[in-house]
UniProtKB/TrEMBL annotation:
Keywords: Membrane, Transmembrane, Transmembrane helix. This is ABC transporter permease. The chain crosses the membrane at residues 264-287, 307-334, 346-369, 389-407, 427-451, 472-495, 681-705, 734-758, 778-801. The lineage of its organism: Bacteria, Bacillati, Actinomycetota, Actinomycetes, Pseudonocardiales. The keyword Membrane applies. It comes from Lentzea kristufekii.
Amino acid sequence: MQLPWRAAPRAALSSPLTLLVSIATTLLLGFVVAAAALHSSAAGSAALAYQQSRMCPHSVHPSLDGDGMPLAAAAEMAARSDLGAAYTPIGRPDFNGLATYGRFGYRPDALSHLTAVQGGGTGLWVPQTIATAAKVRVGDRLTGSSLVVSAIYADLTQPVSGWWCSEAKHVVPNPLGGDGASTSVIWVAQASDLAALPPEFTGYASVSLRFPVEPPATLAEAEALRDNGNARLAALGLSLTRTDLLSGAVAAARTSERNVSSSLLPLVIISVLVGLAGVGTVTVQWAQRRHSELRLLWVRGASPLALGLRGVLELGLPLVLGGVLGLVAARLLLPLYAPGVVLAPGTLWVALGFVLAVVVLSLAVTVLVASWRAHRTFQRQARSRRLGLVPWELVVAGLAVLAWVRLSHNGLGTSLKPGSLPRVDVAALAFPLLVVLAAALLATRLLRWSLGWSHHVQWWRVPAAQLALRRLAAAVGPVTGVLLVGVLAVGTIAVGSAVAGAQQSALDSKSGVFVGANSTVQVSQDIALGRVALPSSLRGNTTLVGVSTGALVVDPATFTDAAVLNDAAEVRSLLSGLKRTGEVAPALRIGRSANQEIQIAGLPLLRPVAALPSFPKLGTRGYVVARDSVPAVEQVGSWHLWSTLPLSALTSALQADGIHYTNVADRARVLDGLPFLTVEWTFGFVAAIGVVLAVVAAVALLLAVEVRRRQNAVSGALSTRMGMRPSVLWSSHLLEVGALALLAVGIGVVASFVSAGAAVPRLDPAPWLNPAPMLPDLLPLLGSMVACGTLVVVVAAWLALRGVRTARMGELLR
């Protein structure tokens, strides 16, 4: 028999709801697979951008460095790069007979990146420290040379700007080092001026070759820059030390991209299966609406397969359109769910291929489900329930147990080393999601059994509840489907948000413990001896800490003002009790340190009087002693300022008062956060998929209500004609839909919180640092889910009552 090909697509317009739901279903399917491809590519680009943010801009391109060569040779080599610098050895330049330590250097455009204190022009630029020590003035001539001082500039100090950071070891002196160990640079204006320097500065020179480039945005661009850069350096043929930081950044970014994509694969597969089940549900609803027409076609000789193709003729165009819209939505919403917006070339084509694949699968599911429905309905075959008898929840629970074993033994995967990127164990990573899936399957099976026995329940004293229970039992299939997707949605959102939030807070807390405060600098012992006072702007936010091997010397009065602490009040109380009364100094014992008297170099004999599990800078091993208990503060290893201020604010305050410092540390940059970001990006996408599943659950619920519109209208209209108050009917529908939403939220929240609470401490990218990741505060997330669920419940109940209010009894009875 020839099917009505031309009429079929137009016939779909007679059921606009089915049309819209078909589009929405494949839109979500297309969005999931396209977003996974885009997210993985964006994660690689974001990882590359993060690694580059931790590199000096001039070190992105492979570079060369060398020393111990004649100055003329260094100048000649420096001229062969885009931005080369030559530095003389440290000597004692003489301007007025007051020689002090200094070195000369040349770097193109260096003078425009210095701050002149006096003078200017194109002569020698002398740093202010050398000018002060040697009493150098503008116009003085360098002894043994024709070069004249034309400017005095402010010394470069840490943290230096991006233009100088690759040269920091040459241009930033260590003010706490010994004489002649390091010094600021006296700059010449032209490379030819180096030949005019005194003979004692012409040997043992250093050279650096830099090649400024625009930072690559994608991994392909970075790999091309790395390969071309290394080939260029090889072509120069210089016997210098090569530095290739970009190779490590590219390798880390590739690993991050691979980890994210492999971790998302199981979730995407589950989401696709759920989406295809939604396509099957839409096809079943279509078959119910077209029952009369399909029966007529079957009577005229159409086979079940032909009837299935008729379903494709009606639903095929909406399914294709939905897939295309899903790709468009994934691209437009990329900034909302991905860690970046930069995509590798060809990523959109890959995403389009995935979308076409799921569209083809959707069409195949439509054919199979429609054919199976026609076969079962018209050929009266016995319904097979073999799949329903399989205890899927036990299978998934077994997989969850195996994942837990992997997670408890391996954490994220392989054993990690500081600075390495974890190779994520996907099986271990899937544990919390498998727990949620097992809970969802168990809940649906128990709900199906409960609704099967619900006819024994007699709640007519509460007619709203009795009617709600009857309606749920009459639609057990759609109800259990909505519950399954709802639990998955809530659990996935909670798991993704919990793990992503835990990684973010873990990076912040570990960085704080590692540094001790937001920023730190090493200072001379003059501050500890009281010879130099701290600037007034640092009082109340900065403390002085002495560091010896295995011990910290702290000021109990100010330590808690600056240090990163979980319980400042407890630490303040313990530190206030460290008062020395004899030869032995009381101390805090940290973590696993020995609980006995101990002698540490530069400190008196220490006796532990209290203990803490961990402490800033020390971690889980060491001792803490009060500064008043240390009589010889000059024997302490080193002294540091810890501050709550940003590093730039701390160093600016010290520079304003002329206080020298070195060994700066910034909490925001001290740790490589890419391992944490990789896990955070992965579970951030998990939360995004949960939002998609929540939309699927809401749409499925509203569809189930709309499909039963005529049935609800008949029962509701008859009930109101028999004396039921509209408020009772409204309460009945609220109870029906609300109970389903409450079950989904409750089961999903409990399963996700329990599984995430067990998994989060073991998903630690840096297990050698304390503290371990902890479950964040999820109450705001729970509140938002309850609010959204309430809104969906109200809308669904309103849709159910709309048919009752607009029903015409005569038409309904007919």
